[in-house]
Design goal:
heterodimer, A: 304 residues, mainly alpha, MetI-like fold, 15 helices, globular, B: 316 residues, 17 helices
């Protein structure tokens, strides 16, 4: 107790400096975190969050008796798995390729171009997609008509959208991720490559035995973070890019869009809060599990 | 040596490497062509939006969206500047949110990061964990929505844009790593022996040495605040407070409506109407005008951005 007092006397300025952050974190992170308990309540607007009565796991029962729960879980997880694997592969390949270009000036110019989509808001991306896929004026149909083809109603056909969304997500994210990997590659000591050259290693061998193994640490960390977010669908991507089209819900509904729609259009607080709770809980368990797994296999690269 | 320094962004090590171990010329040519094709997939879609914004309505009605409109026009932009009150308003409020929010975030987070970097502080572990936990467990949309609207009553106010998310775990950890790796502890100790208190140390010693770190996090913040459409979408009805990106989403819903009408009314009257109101080119003009600042500013900040990514990728 005494030492606590002494600690505070010595460092009170520091604690004061931390105070704004602590207050903000409590108000906007911790309070909503506890607000998640709403999932176990029958929410009543007139009574408010705290006074609404508990109703056990009824909200979850309602949620999981519908097919919605299965569809949104399947979509969220499958899209994320494809996003993680494809974007990882493409961005590492792009980083290595950019790094090997003979002209460093070219590397820099390409890098500037490839990272550009990262700075575009999802509203812009949605309109770009629309400029290509709009039924009457969209560029793709314009080209089809030019060659005597017929218009396709892209926004009404579920079979196209998994591919479109994967493409848009890669278009947007690969350049940015490649820059992260490039930063990591530039940190590799020259000596490895010099030694490899002396041993007569070809460029491909150098990439395979030096560059790629060195990217393991950063890849692992990014992977843990990505696995922890595997239950989080990118709301902007899945809501705005398909223009919120009802016909496409079977392939565009993810947990985040479901929560939004249940909350804002159906006013179904019970189901939507159960869905976010389910999302947060599984997400948290996944981070813990993937970290524990990495710590066992490869302790140096675990996140915590 | 001096010459090498002038190469700027390239570290001297990368420069040396680039000099004596390049890939063959043939491989380089193939790689460059692939890169040019990839760059085209990024630039052409943006170019299409720009070209539509300069296409006349008649041209759009005849040919649809194309890279080669029949007729070029400035009508979209003229119409935008004449009747674009909402655009101007959204523009100003977005600048306000972006600048104010970023300054507040930098002030609060840099202090917190400084606190977390002080090894003599006994509460350091706890505070770090306190921060870290918010990165692992999220509040969830429903609880947040109800708490913001029914407990804090910050919906339809500027505060909903400024306060939530001000302290981001990822950003704080990057800032802390910046302090730990660039400023030696002995500097703090020396200042304290001279009688400076912690806040003075932060203000007089850390801040001046900290410009790169602040610029990086500032840039992250500016980009995410400028592009934030969800907050406005979720919490704001009042048009005065609607930021640019939320307005863009709303306009897109409107475009659908306009277009479904124009398709049905291909009568002379309908054509006349489309001719007079360059809605589509105007929408695209709004998109161009709202995206341009960030795309133009980005290359100048790229250096800080990339250094932030590098440090962020170092295990905290």
């Amino acid at each position: 107790m005494k030492s606590l007092k002494k600690e505070f006397q010595q460092n009170y300025v520091l604690y004061l400096m931390a105070l704004p952050s602590i207050a903000l974190l409590i108000a906007f992170n911790y309070v909503p975190m506890f607000g998640q308990l709403l999932a176990f309540k029958a929410f009543d607007v007139t009574k408010g969050i705290i006074k609404s009565p508990w109703n056990g796991i009824n909200n979850f029962k309602y949620l999981f008796t519908t097919t919605d729960a299965w569809i949104m879980t399947r979509n969220t997880v499958l899209y994320n798995i494809v996003f993680i694997l494809l974007n990882r592969f493409l961005s590492i390949a792009l980083a290595i390729a950019l790094n090997e270009l003979r002209s460093k000036r070219a590397t820099k110019i390409f890098q500037t171009i490839f990272i550009m989509p990262h700075f575009l808001s999802i509203a812009i991306i949605a309109i770009i997609v629309f400029a290509f896929l709009g039924t009457s004026n969209g560029f793709v149909n314009v080209v089809r008509r030019y060659f005597g083809g017929k218009n396709i109603n892209w926004y009404y056909n579920v079979k196209f959208w998994p591919g479109f969304l994967v493409f848009v997500n890669a278009w947007r994210g690969v350049g940015y991720a490649a820059v992260v990997y490039m930063a990591s590659i530039s940190g590799i000591s020259m000596e490895f490559y010099e030694a490899a050259m002396l041993d007569g290693a070809s460029k491909m061998q150098q990439i395979r035995y030096i560059t790629i193994p060195h990217l393991k640490a950063i890849t692992t960390i990014l992977l843990i973070m990505a696995v922890g977010r595997i239950f989080n669908g990118d709301f902007g991507l899945f809501y705005t890019v398909p223009q919120d089209t009802g016909q496409l819900y079977p392939v565009t509904q993810v947990i985040d869009t479901y929560v939004y729609r249940a909350l804002m259009t159906l006013n179904d607080i019970g189901r939507s809060s159960a869905a976010t709770f389910y999302q947060s809980l599984v997400g948290f368990l996944l981070v813990m599990a993937s970290n524990a797994f990495v710590r066992r296999v490869d302790p140096e690269n675990s996140l915590f | 040596m001096a010459k090498r320094e002038k190469k700027g962004e390239l570290s001297s090590e990368a420069y040396v490497r680039s000099n004596f171990m390049k890939i063959g010329r043939g491989a380089n040519a193939v790689l460059t062509i692939v890169m040019i094709l990839l760059a085209a997939t990024i630039i052409l879609p943006l170019l299409l939006v720009v070209i539509i914004s300069f296409s006349s309505s008649l041209s759009i009605a005849h040919r649809g969206y194309t890279f080669f409109p029949e007729q070029w026009t400035l009508m979209g932009y003229q119409y935008l500047f004449k009747s674009g009150e909402q655009v101007a308003r959204s523009y100003l409020i977005t600048i306000f949110y972006t600048v104010t929010g970023t300054v507040m975030a930098l002030a609060v987070m840099s202090m917190f990061a400084f606190v977390l970097s002080q090894k003599q502080l006994r509460g350091r572990m706890f505070l770090t964990f306190f921060m870290y936990l918010t990165m692992l467990i999220h509040g969830g949309l429903v609880a947040r929505y109800l708490i913001y609207t029914q407990v804090y009553h910050i919906d339809n106010t500027i505060w909903v844009f400024l306060l939530p998310g001000l302290v981001g775990g990822y950003n704080v950890f990057i800032l802390r790593t910046f302090i730990n790796t660039t400023i030696p502890d002995s500097l703090f100790e020396a200042a304290k022996i001279d009688g400076a208190n912690d806040f003075t140390v932060y203000l007089r010693i850390v801040m001046p040495l900290f410009k790169a770190g602040l610029a990086t996090i500032g840039l992250f913040n500016v980009v995410s605040r400028w592009n934030d459409w969800f907050t406005g979408f979720m919490y704001v009805e009042n048009p005065v407070l609607i930021p640019l990106q939320t307005m863009l989403i709303k306009i897109q819903k409107n475009v659908d409506f306009i277009m479904s009408n124009s398709e049905m009314s291909m009568s002379p009257d309908g054509l006349e109407l489309i001719k007079n109101l360059p809605k589509q080119s105007m929408q695209m003009a709004i998109f161009v005008v709202s995206t341009l600042p960030i795309l133009c500013a980005y290359p100048f900040f790229q250096k800080y951005f990339i250094s932030g990514l590098t440090i962020g990728s170092v295990k905290g």
